[in-house]
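User: Teach me something about this protein's shape.
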Amino acid sequence: MTISAFMVALPRPGEPAVPVLRLSVDQYHAMMEKGIVREGEPFEPIDGRIVCKNRAAARDDPTTIGDRHVWSVVKLGEVSRLLEPFGCHLRAQQPISIPPYDEPEPDGAIVVGTEDDYLHHKPAAGEILCVIEVSDSSLLYDRRVKGRTYATAGLPLYVFLNLVDVVAEVYRLPGAMGGSYGPPDVLPKGQVLALPTATDTGVEVPVERLLPP
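Assistant: First, the predicted structure itself:
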């Protein structure tokens, strides 16, 4: 029996809320080991809930992957070679570790070191310089829920590639405070996105290089 057998509809408006069991990341991994969740299935634990990843275009079936989403993720992968001379690299659609209740798979994550450094563990908050999400039909969820998850973990920079408005939204933690990001810098095509590295040298990428035509 796989996780699909446990999926239930949320209460309708006006119906009473029901208790929800919060799963830890360790419990989620145990479910994978037992085959309840299969490796590679489009799920990720967020705030102790197993969430189906939505990479669809607006108004499309959420189980599909939108062509524009794919385009941006491929372009993100090309950025990694620009980062590697500065002691970091970009991981595309791979899990990051934010225990005890979160193990999201952002569309991009800039992490210190090389791929070999993560052969036996997933990047943790202290190793992550930036997370990136590509959003179309999942726009509000990624902006609010994912944003809160990343801010609470203290991740210093959240880049939100908004395919609906065709802009990049750049969220930073305000000072040493955690829990929420400050107001975003909104970058349309024609502007430059500054990405952090493991050194004092940043990498600048034209916004139009990451947003589809």
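Now, about its shape. Residues 67-83 form the longest helix (17 residues). Strands lie at 43-46, 49-52, 88-91, 108-112, 128-135, 157-162, 167-172, 185-188, 192-195, 203-206. If you'd like, I can walk through any region in more detail.
User: That's plenty for now, thanks!
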